[in-house]
Amino acid sequence: MIGSMVNFEDINQTTIYIPYSGPDDDSDTPSDIPFPAPPLKERDFLDGHELRLKAYRVAWDKCLTRVQSIVKTLHAPVVSDVAMQVQESYSKVLPGLPYPELPVFCVTNLSGSTSFLNDVSKCLEVDAGVSEGQASTFAVHLHPSDCANVSNGMKAIITGFIERDSGLDQVKHRPATSLANFDINLLVAWYKALKETATYSSAPPKLVLILHDFEQFDPATMQDIFYILRYVPSPFFPYSLISLSCSGKALQLPLVFILLLSTPPIPSYLQTTYPHSTLSLLRITHCVVPSGPKVLEEVLLKTFFDIEFEPCVFIGPAILEYLMDYFTRYNSSIDGLITTLQISYLKHFTSEPMSLLVLETPSVNYFSEADAFSLLDALLTRLLAPSEQSPSSTDASDWQEQSIPSLVKLMDETRAQFYVHSLKFRLGFRILLIIQGFMTKQGYKGLNWDEGSTGSGLCDVMVDALRGNLTRDVKYLGTMVKKFKVQQLHSLLNELHPYFRDMPTHVRVQVEAAWTKIIFLRNTLPKNDDDASTAGKEAVSEFGEWLIEYLNDLILPLDESLLWDVWYTGNSTFPSEVINPSVRASLLSGLLRPLEFGDSSLAENDAQQDTETLWQLPDTNILFRRYLDSGKMINIYDWLESFQAVLDTQKEELKNVGDVPAKGSRSKIGANGKGKKKQVSADEDDEEKWKVEVQARFMRALHELDYLGFIKHTGRKPDHVMRTVFNVTD
Amino acid sequence: MDDLPTATPSRRKRKGKASDNLENNVVSNIIVQTSFDAYFTYTSARPQTSTNVFSHLVLPLSTEEYADAIENMKGPKHIEPRLISESSRMTLFSRFLCELNEGFNILCYGFGSKRRVLNQFAVDYCAKAGHVVVCNGFQPDFSMKDLLNSIENVPGIQALELSSTTIEKQTQRIYDYFAQSTQKRHLYIIIHNVDAAPIRTLKAKSLLSLLALNPRIHIIASIDHINAPLLWSTSEASTRKPAAQESIPTRGFAWLWHDLTTLASYDFELAFTDKSSISGAHGGGARRKTDTMLAQNATAMSETAALHILASVTQKAKKLFALLGAKQLESIEDAGEGVAVNDLQQFGLGYDILFNAARDNFVATNDTALRSLLGEFRDHGLVLSAQGASSGGEILWIPLRKERLSSVIKSIQSEQ
């Protein structure tokens, strides 16, 4: 209906507004949010997508909150450090400086996380609220586009402060009577007024300028801005030559700069780009936000390998490997990491029909409906299939006894079982880490994990663990433990003991036996080697044996659990083209092999006679083939000729295929003696028309290739163009 | 006619041979040839092209001729990619909308105009979920102001205070409006060709990056240029929308990329390009309309343009034109086949001869009268003149190709 109202074909309209046309209710989100259906329809049922969407939301929220809190904890020390220094920036000024300096904080944030900045600003605000004696801060955010030139930059800074809600009455500025909004004196006047109000009279606020993507700012402009702002010296500065020289500005501004950099701290961008004359105006402090592979490790370890946190869906080794690769090679930002995890979750819930069972089993009523049969059937098959170990344990009678309520119950049990399995897995992994850590502390090489062949250390171990490849490592560690001295075992037990002790109760239930064993051993083990050498040694070796067995029991790959694919992505791969696409390859294959995008049956036919079918392709594709045949420079006229040759073939072929009656009529005219002359002139006309058509089609295709960026007009030779793409066959 | 197809293979063979030699030379040194190697191989070889000059040999097409030819063209059937067939379109669209609602923006790439598909998505899906603004970035006179003004059609935005009318403030107001947690309806912005020149500017990009990360604004954009992905740095492209509890507006795009190869032609996108110029579509086809008009080749006089000029001149002038045209046609006929018909100057008429003919036909009795009649045509480029090489006198000609000229003259004669 709207489609008929909106005219998309109007060539003069640059924008088209389409009003909302959905149901007129007040719900926050549209009621019918489409959630893509999985490709396998067999195991789906009607309300499946709603349940999956619900499950996805819960699962992802849980995971996201966890990741965010981990990142926050990682940032916390730097955040509080920066906030504190900003607050104190004008209280500890070195006495005896020849001129005042602007406090500048260079924050190197390689992970590009925006949450860092939020934390900083929150911290600044909170400080202001908590201790009344301290000055609050006013922050203005500047982006590179705000500071294209000095007057724009100054304007952005000044209006940024003035237009905020500071408790001052908003005054209507009349251009004739007020200062220009890029005049620093305007800011001075505003600040003076602010200081005189009751709220700020005791503690005037600091004016914080936060410059995002500082590398993108024009250095020449920024130099001038620093220079201008420096001429308004600080109120806390003990004496100032400058304030003497410009006595009109007796009042001064406590400005603080926070520069956000995404380049490494050494060599600092600021120091390499700005001249000494500018740097001498600034008092620079460097801060580095944690980033790099360690952050990835920390996030993964605490999200998917932590006994205190249980994600609803576990990430499989294939996705984990992709994540590591993407993080280390392309984009080591926290945002990229979170996006990758979210896409994995989204993929899991949209491609796996049974993922609706992740959180809870739908009620009996759901299953009773007819369209739930296929799901029910699939579930039954999976849950009651004879296991490989004991094929005879189930028989047909079991199947008949199953009712829907019992199936729901069985499903709930399976879920609980999976999570217990995963808990044990995580626990085993953690114990392994503790022992490995202990080994390194003792000065042994241990498992050599930090120097993994790919260089990502612990992440590789996580992948190995998920694949079930850790048996050898466990055995090696166990053997090492067996060779411990009694004293060393004591130390190890002392490390393990607090870990077990501090576990949440529901976890400890699962490891009661091991916990008892550790306590028992810790109490009964001789204090040192001399007391009872054989008894001690036996105990050590027995503990080593037990450890191997115990850890191997714990670290079982998650896909050995029943119905694991509901809660675990297993070996399914990450849809990498969504965040790291090959735009070039896609464009080229669209140009080279358009038929393969069409119906598969058609493509097969054409694959056999690939070279013969150039004329069957659309014009742009033909022209592109000829483009590939040419050298670096292309003569447009020759290009047209070669294009025309293909079109001539095309014309012939098309005539042969469908135009039989037309041929007949033509021969009739030919037989008529009188019509002969007419036909000649008609042919000439046709010829002329055909030439124009070829030329038009050539121009169209040429323009399309130009539009796609394949042509460069150099003007070096008359009517030649240059290729921009070479060697596309690889 | 028949010999043409055979002519091409030989041409191809020659070319193929040249590149074979090239490859043979290279193979000895390079184990696996990469694109870089290919570039240097091509660059190191002397480009061998013929001396044919397109603009000398081919008359540029007028807009009418172009439109007519494209309309009547008989090419192979259009290929409909599987991806956008009716059945898979639904899946694709629901996936798009789901991802948009999950806080991402969508960027479609691949060969072919994505306009129709995205417009359908706008009408069938987005309009049912919120307000929609579709913008044609490929249009030469598109500006960010248009986009912002269009968004302000959303009821309620204009009620918010606007301190100044700069686009920054306008964008900020839109951002603020949709950042309100009470705001129920989301905004979907469809941008055709986000890689077009007007949106590529630093300013436009920065404004768009602010809107793109608003939790209630969603962007679906398309790109066509092969190097378009270079527009965004990795961090820009991957910055996520701020979480609900975060207060600082961030900038970035949160793109998710989707291959949307439609194989459709770019006719609509290239509607404003100059069809007579080989570089008409350069710069993304986004040249200013006025530029296009100025750049129109002066020699490309169309039939309608000629008729318009002729309709406004006196009977005498028309007669003069018919006279000159007839002479020109005659000399073209005399030249016969085999002569390059595109260089019209060679068929021009000497001023003296024209003057004599005009006097004989009672069109102009003296030099001044003839010059004043010609002046009108010269001003509009309907008659061109140059100093003749051999005779030294002035040569006049009409820049219309044979068949166009004859039809113009026919229509003058039918009027009289």
UniProtKB/TrEMBL annotation, chain A:
Its main location: nucleus. GO terms for molecular function: DNA replication origin binding. It comes from the Eukaryota. InterPro entries: ORC3, ORC3_N, ORC_WH_C. Residues 584-726 form the Origin recognition complex subunit 3 winged helix C-terminal domain. Coiled coil: none annotated. The keyword Nucleus applies. Residues 45-357 form the Origin recognition complex subunit 3 N-terminal domain. Belongs to the ORC3 family. This is Origin recognition complex subunit 3 N-terminus-domain-containing protein. It comes from Crucibulum laeve. The lineage of its organism: Eukaryota, Fungi, Dikarya, Basidiomycota, Agaricomycotina.
TrEMBL record, chain B:
Coiled coil: none annotated. GO terms for cellular component: nuclear origin of replication recognition complex. One of its GO terms (molecular function) is DNA replication origin binding. Pfam families: RecA-like_ORC2 (PF04084), WHD_ORC2 (PF24882). It is found in: Nucleus. Residues 88-260 form the Origin recognition complex subunit 2 RecA-like domain. Keywords: DNA replication, Nucleus. Residues 1-20 are annotated as: Disordered. PANTHER family: ORIGIN RECOGNITION COMPLEX SUBUNIT 2. Belongs to the ORC2 family. Component of the origin recognition complex (ORC). This is Origin recognition complex subunit 2. It comes from Crucibulum laeve.
